[in-house]
Design goal:
Shape: globular
Strand content: 15-25%
Distance between the termini: 29 Å
Number of strands: 5
Radius of gyration: 15 Å
Mean pLDDT: 92
CATH class: Alpha Beta
């Protein structure tokens, strides 16, 4: 039976890099909220950002279940920053008989700040199509992230 691999980690923790390595070693399909959002809506979604993210997540959960039901592993590259989001995903997939794993990428606060600065430099120089993380966005993500309990984690990666 195919599985859903949920990638958990703060913004700029290395989830996308890790998902690419995992894809190459396992043949899984990567589904990314950020990739979908940027492709369809660009980087400036304004006040609708959270609503668009919710819609993108709903769509990708449905696609992930469809792909897993066809026998292919799916990597959900979206962060799963809150306990509630992790519970929602597990409930969604378990109700469809699809096993889930949580791969948690943990980084220190200093490393997080370094990676945000690096990302912002790359975005400003036009070398990345990722989101620019301003002080407001940084504060929002810092306040939202809830580190998973050991009981939630299938694989832990120290970044």
């Amino acid at each position: 039976m195919a599985r859903i691999i949920m990638l958990c980690g703060r913004l700029c923790s290395g989830k996308t890099t890790y998902s690419a390595k995992l894809k190459n070693s396992s043949g899984a399909v990567i589904l990314s909220v950020d990739e979908l959002m940027i492709a369809l809506l660009g980087r400036e979604t304004g006040e609708m950002h959270d609503e668009y993210v919710r819609r993108a997540e709903d769509y990708l959960f449905s696609k992930a279940a469809e792909i897993a039901s066809a026998g292919v592993d799916v990597i959900l590259d979206q962060g799963f920053w809150t306990r509630l989001s992790r519970e929602k995903a597990r409930g969604y997939f378990s109700s469809r008989g699809i096993p889930c794993e949580l791969h948690y990428i943990r980084i220190t606060d200093d490393e997080w700040e370094r990676r945000i600065s690096k990302r912002n430099s790359e975005v400003a120089a036009g070398r990345s199509d990722a989101y620019f993380v301003d002080d407001g966005l940084r504060a929002k993500f810092r306040s939202l992230f809830e580190e998973p309990d050991e009981s939630e984690i299938t694989v832990r990666i120290e970044g």
